[in-house]
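Hi P.,

Sorry for the delay on this. The queue was packed all week, but I finally got your sequence through. Input first:
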Amino acid sequence: MRVVIDYLKGIWETPSLKRKILFTFAILIAYRFLVFLPVPFVNIKELFTLISQNNLLQAGAGGGLEYLAVLLGGTLDKFSIITVGLIPFINASIVIQLLTAVLPHLEELQEQGEVGQMKIQQYTRWLTVPFAFLQAIGTVYFIHSLAPSVINTTMGIVLLSAFSMMVWSILLMRLGETITEKWISNGISLIIFSSIVAGIMSKLFGYLVGAGSTELQKVIVFVLLVVIVLVILSILLIRTVKEIPIIYARAGRVEERAVLPIPLNPVGMIPIIFAMSFISFPYLVATLFVKKGVESSTLYNVANWIQQNMNIYTNQPAPLAIGLFFVLTVLFTFFYTIIVFNPERMAENIQQRGGYIPWIRPWEETAKYLNKILMHLSFWWGIWLALVGIYSYILPYLPFVKDYVVMSGTLPVVVSGAGIIIIVGVVKEIIDKVNGELLMERYEKL
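Then the structure:
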């Protein structure tokens, strides 16, 4: 306990670090206040009635969107002006990164270092604008399909409401980038982190309020045990590092030994976010078509099939949805690893500094060796991420925990593997950067 107090005291006594943390907290508090500000032109009285009855999403949705509501931190069920959130930015990032692998211009920018990355980031921002506007239009129609009395769908109201949500989505993206610039953590990940924590705490509070029966108390203990196990496994795997020995030849035949650390999680929790966004899009569009109705019977049947087989937001998704989520997580892990790491460039940097990996020839052989290691780590990390993502859908089939899972009702909502891995990853990133700042402060005082 004393160590924790001294650690927190050291953070508070570091002026630059304290300013960054307070600034970040101020932005996150402002973000959480925006959750309670509804979209313009809504029927406030009807919206508040549905919120108080806790059935906005259940009004025609069958409870299938509770998980999405948790990931959005309560913005969807309150029809907040930031309901669109950062999903358009995430989708735009996916598209730009996919195009980077096929368009020579973007590939050249990728190789230009920081300047090229800034240009790619600018393209991502531009693409976020139409994505946010289109998603906002879909959100208006979607909420109307769940609760028609909340908002009208005349052209003017739809366009103006969608425009306001688009503006706030862009502002939210900018707030995330501002947090990143202040160097405490990746701002986009931190905002997603705060949304997940807020959603989980809301659900757990609902459990605790009704924790009178012995059965419910057992469910709470079971859920807490699952959380603890997931957190411990996530910490162990996130901190696992593959150390590649490197020898640097210096003047006078002196050799310096070092290691090139490559984490088991080369790309962190990004693939599971990408996979969730990717698989959710066809389901949400299909749900909108089914709720609104379409003239084409073929299109309606296709949308109905997608809604039944691609719903990842329910306690027991269809095998197709689970399998697709698993495969997409693994594929995005490989894909993002290829984008983030460049074995050729890593081999070139080692060679230029006069280093080499023992028993491995420089340049091409070194690049092949590093690529083999990255692919091996990506495979196991992708499998782990995918299993974490689908574990809560597999538990109902296990005899010894099936009863507890059934009693918990919304286990995927409260202890989703995606949420846990994102929380652990963001907390680790914050701790690492805070420790680095404290270490730098100590060196400056010497």
